Amino acid sequence: MKAALRIGAVATGAALALGAVGSAYAATPGANSTASATSAGKGKPGSAHVGPTGLAAAQKLATARIKGRLDTLHALSLAVEGSKFLTSGEKGTLGKQISSDVSGLTALDSKVAAAKTVQDVRADEVAMVDDFRVYLLMVPQVRLTEALAAESDAAVTLQKAYLALSNLLTKQSSIGTAEQKSDLAGLQSEVIAAQAAIGNEVATVLAIQPGPNASAIHSALAPAASAVKTAHADLLKARDDAEALRGAL
Amino acid sequence: MKKISYGTAAVAGALLCAFALAGCQGKSGSTSGGTGSTAVTVSGAAVAVTSSAPSGGASQSTATGGSNPGDGVPSATPTGATAVDSELDTVDQQLGAAGTDLAQATASPSDGG
Lengths: 249, 113
What we know:
The complex is a heterodimer of chains A (about 250) and B (about 110).
Chain A (H helix, E strand, L loop, with lengths): L1 H20 L1 H4 L7 H10 L8 H31 L5 H27 L3 H13 L3 H38 L6 H21 L2 H7 L6 H35 L1
Chain B lengths: L1 H32 L4 E6 L2 E6 L24 H30 L8
Antiparallel strand pairs in B: 1-2
């Protein structure tokens, strides 16, 4: 339920921000990439000094794009504060990064409002994307860290279940069937495999920095996403083994 | 005459304080009682509180044994089974949260990233 609210908050923030600018966004060249935004300015040097209406439209669009990011950061901040799984250290690191981004984007918003040319606004938009990478990096950083933390907790919980099931098994006069022993061993090895997959991925994810190279950021995040999937599959198998054992005892 | 006035005022003040205290305790009692885990009885300004053991979470592992102690089943067995059930429920929640987070982490970034 909470997760659904979070998704809704992020989606609504982005939708409101983009919806507010409507066709202005669609008409803006290079809005989806920093490279094309820069080349658009270079290719048409005269366009940097359009009339006040063009400047106002560019400022409105940039302001809306910044607001969408600030709304997303606010939703992420709430998610981090309310997380049941993140450690205090992880919350501190993510909270600090989010606060830093909020400060930077708020300052950038003021800069956009004071811009004198469309070219200045375009440069601010490039900085808005490259220097913060809210959608490409910050959102995955928070979500992957939380997913890894939740899985780490799940592994600990399954270890407790393993111990409880092991105790139950040894108390039985038959000391368990071969199948039960196999399930118990499987449970343990799957939990160990999940913990190995989780490894040090949180530190790796939190160390990724924003920058102009979107592909590099995407590639840097990929191993952590893969680790979350692998650990998830291992933990689900362990859970099924635990349930099967529980049913048999 | 003045003494009588002071005396009346003092009594009235004391009564008001007593009523106010009783009112506060009564409110507190009704709130706590609403949780279902605490029974509160208000009698004037005196409050008697009876707390039952909290339910759910880790407390389940301390649950007593089987409903029929004479059936030969060790009393610890249901406790362990109850603990396993509780832990499996917790694992479901943890893995559910991880799955939701993964979906959000891998969603396509918007607006240039």
